[in-house]
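Consider the tokenized backbone below.
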């Protein structure tokens, strides 16, 4: 299930970041996760856009800020069939959207903002069809919304993407009805395998997660965050510090995994997560 050739509408499909120094950022993640790095921009371009790859498969992008304003936040992209229609849905649901625009021959996109201020991008693919490697060491494992108003988020993302929520002991998950059928179609037996492992009912439809922000927490920003899968969380936490990053939380046990929150040398945070089946009953 780790190799993909595309997605369906409403599923997170790509992440990228536009830090102050893209080349140094690419080197950090290459050293940390073992990515192969290639600048995908044509020769002579003013900006850079590095693609991080595993076994030749695209994992994430690190580029120059197109508007000249660097960002220290990983951006989440959602696969859509028609970007213009979804952008209009976002506006009608109480959010905002930039006007959709073409990214050369890669695809068409827009940046939408939910009513609480969290931003993410929508991606109508052309030549670029999202991350080809997911759910294995050094690749995206989860996209997570940090929100203070879950009910308003439910209404917005339900209207825009058709998402629903699933309450689990591990927390709240975003689900897309029918996504499990799509996964099962190219990985026959996946549903049974997940059930045999003890995955909760409905988990196969999960597309993202929710991190509710406590009402008395005035410092945690409302935003989309990214989680990378890793094989050895202790080793990754140690290496991140050696490479100039900072471990700001953990490693700690969580339901089904062991995690750490890391800040990279340019200030972007992410979560690293090691799958630990023995932690299935750990309370979030």
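A designed sequence for it:
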């Amino acid at each position: 299930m780790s190799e993909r050739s595309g997605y369906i509408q409403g599923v997170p499909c790509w992440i990228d970041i536009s830090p102050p120094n893209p080349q140094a950022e690419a080197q950090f993640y290459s050293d940390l996760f073992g990515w192969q790095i290639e600048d995908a921009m044509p020769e002579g371009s003013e900006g850079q856009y590095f693609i991080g790859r595993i076994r030749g498969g695209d994992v994430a992008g690190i580029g120059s800020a197109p508007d000249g304003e660097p960002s220290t936040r990983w951006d989440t992209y959602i696969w859509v069939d028609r970007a213009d229609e979804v952008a209009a849905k976002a506006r009608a649901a109480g959010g905002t959207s930039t006007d959709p625009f073409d990214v050369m021959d890669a695809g068409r996109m827009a940046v939408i903002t939910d009513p609480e201020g969290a931003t993410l991008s929508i991606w109508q693919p052309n030549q670029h069809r999202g991350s080809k490697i997911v759910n294995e060491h050094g690749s995206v494992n989860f996209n997570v919304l940090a929100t203070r108003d879950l009910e308003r988020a439910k209404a917005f993302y339900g209207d825009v993407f058709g998402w629903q929520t699933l309450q689990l002991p591990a927390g709240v998950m975003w689900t897309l009805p029918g996504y499990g059928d799509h996964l099962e179609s190219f990985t026959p037996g996946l549903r049974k395998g997940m059930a045999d492992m003890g995955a909760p009912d409905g988990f196969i439809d999960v597309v993202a997660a929710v991190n509710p922000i406590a009402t008395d927490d005035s410092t945690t920003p409302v935003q989309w965050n990214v989680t990378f899968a890793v094989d050895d969380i202790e080793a990754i936490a140690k290496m991140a510090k050696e490479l100039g990053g900072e471990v700001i939380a953990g490693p700690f046990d969580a339901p089904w995994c062991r995690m750490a929150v890391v800040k990279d040398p340019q200030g972007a945070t992410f979560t690293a997560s090691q799958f630990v089946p023995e932690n299935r009953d750990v309370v979030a």
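The chain has a mean pLDDT of 92.
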